[in-house]
Amino acid sequence: MGTCGRSRYEEKHAAVARGNLAAAGVADRVTVLVGPGVEVLPIIADKGPFDAVFIDADKVNYHVYGAWAVKHLRPGGLVLGDNAYLFGELMEDSDRGRAMRAFHELVAATCDSVCAPTPDGLVVGIKR
Ligand SMILES: C[S@@+](CC[C@H](N)C(=O)[O-])C[C@H]1O[C@@H](n2cnc3c(N)ncnc32)[C@H](O)[C@@H]1O
Prior knowledge:
Blueprint: H1 8-23, H2 37-44, E1 50-55, H3 62-72, E2 73-82, H4 95-110, E3 111-116, E4 122-127
The protein binds S-adenosylmethionine (SAM).
């Protein structure tokens, strides 16, 4: 388990995840890494290529997470990005808006993709 940048807040959520994994009987097959995504992702980079990456963390880094996903997914691998409409702020001139638009553009350029019209949008991409 990674511990970089751990805060009590993150640990609280990780404890819930561990409890759910144990209740599902898969705790022995899952590793929970706690910390900022930009610090944790390098820890698992050499475990790839990955079958799927689900992105649902801080929106200002979606372009970073998206680039990491495309780099480390196998061809045919799945990338999912929640909150793709950015709570109605997708077109705003903000760091978050620019990051989310860059994420959309990256997935469209590298994957067969769609933005599913869930209440806040879900990008679904299959890496080419
Ligand atoms: C919307 S919740 C995700 C919920 C989760 N996908 C689920 O279905 O239970 C967003 C999560 O991203 C985490 N988060 C926020 N900023 C982060 C960062 N820089 N690195 C990693 N995780 C972050 C928050 O602590 C929070 O747990």
